[in-house]
Amino acid sequence: MTQPPYVIDEMISAKTIAARIEDLAKEIETAFAGTEKLVVVGLLRGSFVFIADLVRELDLNVEVDFLEASSYGDAMESSREVRILKDLRGEINGRDVLVVEDIVDTGFTLHHVVGLLRSRKPKRLETIALLDKPSRREVDIKATWTGFQIPDEFVVGYGIDYAQRNRNLPFIGKVRFT
Ligand code: IMP
Ligand code: MG
Prior knowledge:
- This protein has one domain: Rossmann fold (3-Layer(aba) Sandwich), CATH 3.40.50.2020.
- The protein is globular.
- The longest helix is centred in the N-terminal third of the chain and has 18 residues.
- By secondary structure, it is an alpha/beta fold.
- The strands form two sheets. A six-stranded mixed β-sheet has the order 4-3-2-5-6-7, with helices on both faces. Strands 1-9-8 form a three-stranded antiparallel β-sheet.
- The chain is built from three helices and nine strands.
- The chain binds inosinic acid (IMP) and magnesium ion (MG).
- Inosinic acid (IMP) binds next to strand 5 and helix 3.
- GO terms for molecular function: guanine phosphoribosyltransferase activity; hypoxanthine phosphoribosyltransferase activity; magnesium ion binding; nucleotide binding.
């Protein structure tokens, strides 16, 4: 499928993201102080850049695992039906867990993943989303920590794609059709 022509306008610079992650990492360190080991769960694929930067700021023992939930396909709308495409490799029963998401939009994805992981009885489970679009919410869920609240714009970069493109941009930009 081909996309109509578009340009990308920078919305959040790489520097601003990095500064925010430093602050978030401090809050997470405080919240999980004394943990034996924190299981940091990245939701593929959009969180791969965020999780990479976040764990390198965390002064805690961490284990990194990934889970892939079904996404948009190439569309710009959520399918609202979430399927698990790739499950965790490790056990989380009795463990401290931090779920890392790129964007909370309708909320269906995070809601589903949190429900699934809670059923495995972690000791503690918290969530962090780099971006939040509260005006789009359809399911009542909020990440424990949010990097930035953004308006209802379709964004790309810093791991986030439009039809699998633009994940490699170092900043967050909004898609503008031309
Ligand atoms: P939700 O289930 O509607 O909350 O959707 C969350 C997922 O949709 C995110 O993890 C992203 O992968 C994707 N998504 C939501 N908004 C955007 C966007 O603006 N650009 C690219 N992907 C998005
Ligand atoms: Mg995603």
